[in-house]
């Protein structure tokens, strides 16, 4: 797959990244996508909640932080395990949705870079796919470690490389094949798949002071009923990728769709489509 500078897989120059502008772009994007996220992507991302909770060793009585909680998938499952949970998200609409769906759980609007909690407030912290959406991941992970007690555990997930995560890869390949160009007003972020590299992902946690850090790969096959379901899911459940598509001219959009319709045929299985999904899960423990 080839990429242009502000595409999700591209590596922008360090001096091209405005982390504050990128954070605002992501927050605004999730405000817009909140009502439709559960329609498609939520059914996929929720499949990785139990491995996250296992890695964080969430047990009855534990106090748990669910960062970038979205509609509350992680918070709900942690509660079912007997934990006391606080779910936070930067997008107020996501938090309102989570509160509506799960009124008995504590959901709050919060910035992951400046959490409104005292040091050592939680026994465990989880976050399902916040990593690709951070402008300053090192700062965020350090902040989460701050609110963990000594001995507390953190577990994070991120997407694997697009050739192994074809549910995203097929759309990105279509963008590239159609010659999609990033708009000037799209804030550059870090590469979307930067932490698909095991060593780099582990270093992120080790650099924040965690020990016993491990990274593992989880693979699943995700089925969709039609190419139209996948297409609409990408446009209503992503921020950077959908913004890139919507910024194109009508002619380029038609080319992207034509490329997508051809590329997705590789994954057709009878009347359905089955796409490989690969995820990286990293976890570690705070020692002091």
What is the secondary structure topology, with strand pairs?
Layout: H1 19-37, H2 41-45, H3 49-55, E1 63-67, H4 73-80, E2 84-89, H5 92-101, E3 106-109, E4 122-128, H6 137-146, E5 148-159, H7 166-177, H8 198-207, E6 210-224, H9 227-237, H10 240-246, H11 250-263, E7 268-269, E8 272-286
Parallel strand pairs: 1-2, 1-4, 2-3, 4-5
Antiparallel strand pairs: 5-8, 6-8, 7-8
Describe the protein in words.
- 39% of the residues lie in helices and 23% in strands.
- It is built from eleven helices and eight strands.
- Strands 1, 2, 3, 4, 5, 6, 7 and 8 form an eight-stranded mixed β-sheet that branches.
- A hairpin with a 2-residue loop joins strand 7 and strand 8.
- The protein is globular.
Beginning-to-end CA distance, first to last residue:
42 Å
Q: What's the main sheet like?
A: 8 strands, mixed
Percent in strands: 15-25%
**What do the pLDDT scores average to?**
92
Number of helices: 11
Coarse structural class: alpha/beta
Low-confidence blocks of residues: 1-15
C-alpha Rg (nearest Å): 18 Å
Order of helices and strands: HHHEHEHEEHEHHEHHHEE
**How much helical structure, as a percent, in the residues?**
25-40%
Number of DSSP-assigned strands: 8
CA-based shape:
globular
